[in-house]
């Protein structure tokens, strides 16, 4: 089973255009990634979510951003079998992410730029990465290549006993992770279906991409929810085709 999973991961890596980056070390990391279980991934998500929450300013319940997100996500306690929990990070950064344990974090800087339905589309997109297995793969690969795995091995595989520096190494790899073109397109497709399923305006995805195009130009393509492949213009056309 592990060899089969390894073959799938290697094949996926080849298809995403990373052939030139594969070496023996990378191949070893891919094999280690194949041994990371679903339970490990959830455990890692729980620990890394706690760490990120501690390192960021989380909007309290009476904050305007928290109140708005609560209203925006009403009825989203469970999405496609995934129990979700939401919070806002008070920062000018324009980002959002979801984790395999149902953690969803939206940055106030992003909320400042988007309408309610546009925020919902972004949430649907991030949940799509989780439900389609993209985030799980990133966790596996980041964990396999990080000091966190060595630390866990040293304490008998207990992720909860990792040091702050080991968790920091792992969490940084997740924060800086980039999804492939096919993964972004698939998550946009998921987001369109997500919007329609809840009776929200799926065309909000077009507005999101137009905002992202403006932000990409202003930021020079620095890491965020919108600095991904394919470019936002191509993603906009993909969403138009779906609609």
User: What is the average per-residue confidence, as pLDDT, rounded to a whole number?
Assistant: 78
- The residue fraction in helices comes out at 55-70%
Total count of strands = 5
The shape is globular
Order of helices and strands: HHHHEEEEEHHHHHHHH
Placed side by side, the strands forming the largest sheet appear as 3-5-4
Q: Structural class, please?
A: mainly alpha
Which residues form runs of ≥5 with pLDDT under 50? Answer: 1-31
Structural commentary:
- The chain has 243 residues and is mainly alpha-helical.
- The protein has one domain (36-242).
- It is 61% helix and 7% strand.
- The protein has helices at residues 2-15, 24-34, 38-55, 64-72, 108-113, 116-131, 134-144, 147-154, 164-175, 181-197, 204-219, 232-242, and strands spanning 78-79, 82-83, 85-89, 96-98, 103-107.
- The strands form 2 sheets. The protein has a 3-stranded mixed sheet with strand order 3-5-4, sandwiched between helices. It has a two-stranded antiparallel sheet with strand order 1-2.
- The radius of gyration is 18 Å and the shape is globular.
- Residues 1-31 have low confidence and may be disordered.
SSE layout and pairings?
Elements: H1 2-15, H2 24-34, H3 38-55, H4 64-72, E1 78-79, E2 82-83, E3 85-89, E4 96-98, E5 103-107, H5 108-113, H6 116-131, H7 134-144, H8 147-154, H9 164-175, H10 181-197, H11 204-219, H12 232-242
Parallel strand pairs: 3-5
Antiparallel strand pairs: 1-2, 4-5
């Amino acid at each position: 089973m592990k060899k089969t999973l390894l073959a799938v991961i290697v094949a996926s890596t080849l298809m995403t255009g990373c052939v030139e980056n594969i070496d023996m070390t990378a191949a070893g990391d891919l094999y280690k990634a194949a041994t990371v279980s679903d339970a490990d991934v959830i455990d890692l998500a729980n620990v890394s979510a706690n760490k990120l929450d501690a390192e960021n300013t989380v909007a309290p319940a009476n904050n305007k951003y928290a109140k708005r997100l609560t209203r925006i996500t009403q009825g989203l306690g469970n999405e496609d079998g995934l129990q979700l929990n939401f919070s806002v990070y008070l920062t000018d950064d324009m980002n959002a992410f979801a984790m395999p344990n149902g953690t969803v974090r939206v940055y106030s800087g992003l909320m400042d730029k988007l309408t309610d339905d546009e925020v919902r589309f972004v949430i649907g997109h991030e949940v799509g990465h989780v439900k389609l297995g993209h985030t799980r793969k990133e966790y596996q690969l980041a964990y396999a290549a990080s000091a966190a795995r060595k630390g866990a091995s040293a304490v008998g595989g207990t992720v909860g006993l990792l040091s702050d520096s080991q968790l920091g190494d792992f969490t940084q790899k997740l924060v800086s992770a980039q999804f492939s073109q096919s993964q972004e397109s698939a998550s946009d497709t998921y987001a369109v279906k997500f919007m329609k399923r809840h009776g929200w305006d799926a065309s909000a995805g077009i507005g999101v991409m137009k905002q992202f195009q403006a932000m990409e130009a202003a930021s020079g393509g620095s890491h965020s929810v919108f600095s991904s492949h394919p470019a936002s213009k191509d993603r906009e056309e993909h969403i138009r085709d779906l609609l």
